[in-house]
Amino acid sequence: MPIGSILATRLNTRSDDYQDNLAAMRGLWAEVEEQLASVPAIGGQRYVDRHHKRKKMLVRERIEQLVDPNTPFLELMPLAGWGTPDPVGVGIACGIGIVEGVECAITGSDMTYRGGSMNPMSVTKGQRFHEIVRENRLPLIVLNESAGADLPRQVDIFVRGGESFRNLTQLSKLGVPSITVGFGPNTAGGAYTPGMSDYTVFVKERGTAYLGGPPLVKMAIDEIVDEETLGGAEMHSRTSGLSDYLAVDEMDALRITRQIVRHLRFEKGGPGATEPADDPIYDVADLLGCASADVRIPFEIREIYARILDGSRFEEFKPLYGDKMVCGWGSIHGFPVGVLGNNGILFSEEAKKAAQFIQLCNKTNTPLVFMHNITGFMVGSRAEQGGIIRNGAKLINAVSNSTVPHLNLMVGASYGAGNYGMAGKAYNPRFVFSWPNHRIAVMGPKQLAGVMDIVARNAAAGRGIDVDEEALAAQTAALEGQIETESTALFSTGRCWDDGIIHPADTRTVLGLALSATHSAPVTGATEYGVWRH
Q: Of the N and C termini of the chain, which has fewer Cβ atoms inside 10 Å?
């Protein structure tokens, strides 16, 4: 029997409110879409054309040729770097795709931007990607063509950057295979990427690897040597042994890579999909207008459930208790899940209910999907006397010690300790995806600016001086504007606080792909938790 009963809907897609909200959400998505369109050409058309003229594929073209035909590729963190000094996308592409029927983590450098060199945000993006690879036990394919670190910025790269090589060799120890394909230079520290990989493929007359290039060799030991003799593909294939396979061209390198994946006979550790994967009975296109573009306006979280869960089926847990936390069981593309979502602020009842639900899902090895639309925990004397800290701590204890996969979907606000209670970024979720209306901060901009206004007035009163109303008003407005900017979905994704902003209508597909990836590793619930107060 399938899980749960069919959810009813009260969403009126013809109402003025829905249509107005839909228009606002379309505007937010248009901003994201514009940024996404810019990523493949961040190096500039001149360098894209030069790459093609040299009969080289762009990194995403290589990925497209590598993955199985007519299968999806889930690109992760495509807008990393937005709003920072680094380019949008930060010069690397990464994601999850199917190669020879095996879900693989695939990453590659963009040679059209500063020779594929690493910048500070590409290190951050790469480290998050390695977390995903390791936690989900995904075979890793690296399509490498990089000049190494962006040397003038080495102070923000060098120390952290070494982690990637440690990650590669630890993956090997854990039985997670890695394959590096050298399409071009693997320079300096980057030479350790093939060195630490289980398998290497080098493209003839293109792929190179050396700790120091010809100029550095000349400076260090006064030796004059050409690139091919020093670290060319043929030399590494015939002499040094760094290269396991010598490919005649790029397509041959991708063919060899697929051949390697085929012989791995890699098996997933999780049980996989076990439920009927029928479509929701409501139109997923309606999701774009389900959540409020203005996160201050409440909306019904069950309307999202009804358009994501298989057959729109949901078995709700404790429906009459702590009703601002809506949790229960369903499935997505056949993968059983426990779902937790917010219909308002968290009170003690909501915290206790969610903590119990998380424990129950761990008992049955059921992954958890957290849908954030939360302004935080309740404040005030009544809440404090009722044990909001004690009960909130139970929830944080539960999410901290839960060992089933956690997937986060940011469909609205995620403010304050509400973010923590909903297993936010700091709690090591397997994946975090955002909708374009998402906002994240310690609290809402108006509330934060208002708190600081009160603090400033109390400080002035304590010193016995008058408040400069004009200066304080300007300061408050500036702070509110700052927090408004720093809490947007684009700001968040630019700093890799999530794994990508997605179109709401794509949510079911994205969560299905992510859940499938989590089942590459064993899915096992926790049996022990920290001490909590009753």
A: N
